Amino acid sequence: MEKFSFILHPLTASDVSRKFPITKNWSDGFIEKIIKYVPPFKVSHITGVVSPYAELEGWFVGCPLTSRQMVEMPEEYVIHKIIKAGKIAEKLGAKIVGLGAFTSVVGDAGITIANNLNIAVTSGNSYTVATALEGTRQAAKLMGIDMKRANVVIIGATGSIGAACAQVLAKETTRLTLVARTEAKLAKLSAQLLATEGMSVDITADAKTAIQTADVVITVTSAVDCIIEPEDLKPGSVVCDVARPRNVSQRVLETRNDVLVIEGGVVEVPGDVDFGLNFGFPPKTSYACMAETMILALEKRYESFTLGRDLSVKQIETIQYLAQKHGFKLAGFRSFERAVTPQQIDMIKRNAEKVCKARRQCGS
């Protein structure tokens, strides 16, 4: 039997109550003060992952720091704690460990962590890109959006996932806008796409303005607070929110019934899977970054497959092929931790058409 592990952490202080209900009524500040002194620990034993070619067991290992703490605390301290979590994975018998959420963002995006462990390490970003793009294409089609002619915006474009999405979409669309905080990095990526794909893209640091006319938005920043609000979005648009914590405000769900927001990278795992932990998903589903670690273990590719901030299209294509081979697939659409039905998508599309018609009438 093949063996893997995956390091996860609470995205926010409130997530701690999933594992420790006693903390449910504690303040966020108090929880963060406590957990920074808690060492990494085994969260659960994972069983039942079975593909046509192999069987798998694994372990979730917790690294008790919130997203905000991972960004704000000293980098050396955070990386050291993640390495400790990796050492637990080693002792449990894992041959590869995946880095979840902000554990794959801190420092050099996993390279130092891998150098300090005796097992393979992957961030899962390759499969995250593959599934996010697949979901975005499907959602756009259902909303009547032609990806080739659509105005596509990538927020967080200079990160590893955003830049990889840009490389792939540069082959598929004629209108692409890249958004990030550092314009020098944007200019470098723009020049790279012009040289490799022959595509001229727009770049900006102003996310609010860029998405107001966007038909499709892929957002994948490392922001700990929401950056997309209801007033920012065009009626009938599709937003694929790959970020954890979410980049899209809860207010969008509450006030905009004319836009489709989907979560990026939600995957159905083959077999009668028991994760031993409730992380907010239906049974047998996981994040794509978790799935990449499982896929590599099932394939017996115990190698540091995705590390650092550079992803290649070849890596994305390879992991997508291996996922299909072992029976992994998109788990349908989810939005704000809820399933989205075809009926709901039809309703969103009709609402968008009504809003656009009313605007045209007002403007005439």
State the main characteristics.
single chain; 364 residues; alpha/beta; Rossmann fold; 2 domains; 5-stranded mixed beta sheet; 13 helices; 16 strands
Structure, described:
- This protein is of the alpha/beta class.
- The chain has 2 domains: 2-126 and 266-330, no CATH class; 130-264 and 333-363, Rossmann fold.
- Helices cover 39% and strands 19% of the residues.
- Helix 5 (111-115) links the parallel strand 4 (96-99) and strand 5 (120-122).
- It is globular, with a radius of gyration of 20 Å.
- The model has no long low-confidence stretch (mean pLDDT 92).
Q: In order across it, which strands form the biggest sheet?
A: 8-7-6-9-10-11
Terminus-to-terminus distance: 67 Å
Poorly predicted runs are none
The fraction of residues assigned to DSSP E strands is 15-25%
* Overall body shape: globular
Helical content (DSSP H or I, runs of 4+): 25-40%
Query: Helical element count?
Result: 13
Q: What's the layout of helices and strands?
A:
Blueprint: E1 2-8, H1 16-19, H2 28-35, E2 41-50, E3 55-62, H3 67-72, H4 75-92, E4 96-99, H5 111-115, E5 120-122, H6 125-142, E6 151-155, H7 160-169, E7 175-179, H8 183-197, E8 202-204, H9 207-211, E9 216-219, E10 238-241, H10 250-255, E11 260-263, E12 266-268, E13 285-287, H11 288-298, H12 313-326, E14 329-330, E15 334-335, E16 338-339, H13 342-363
Parallel strand pairs: 1-3, 1-4, 4-5, 6-7, 6-9, 7-8, 9-10, 10-11
Antiparallel strand pairs: 2-3, 12-13, 12-14, 15-16
